[in-house]
Description:
alpha+beta; 4 helices; 8 strands
Amino acid sequence: MPAPILLDDRVFTVLVLGFVPAAIPPGTLAQSIDLQIPVDLSTFPQAIQARSHTSRSSGRLTYRAPSSPTEQQKKQDGRKIVEGKYVSLEKMSKVEEGGKTYSKWEMKTDSDAGGGLPRGLQRLGVPGAIVKDVPLAVEALLKRRSSGQA
């Protein structure tokens, strides 16, 4: 398989819906649910599409740097982007069990990186990618909590 197929930058455009259920199970102190569903950006109004950092011409999607780009963004400007699809359902709960309180995170996810990357190879990388994301998510929550936002 040609290396560029594996190395092309990718974009996963999703709509994120988050909510707190009206009723939660016994023993659960708090709960939130997040759903990410893939969307086709080209179906959105032009004003929303203009906020994206992508551009489509002749069926080809490329990265479009913002008006005040960083050096990295300047280097990426005009590069081909492969569209992928991503969906996830995540439930975060604060649970009390056996006199202890702990956080519980449940997740279901599926994705398709698009391009020529075989699904079998994609599936091999998903668990590792999620494992890398967990500390980042926890760090973001701790920062919000310490700043009084959570």
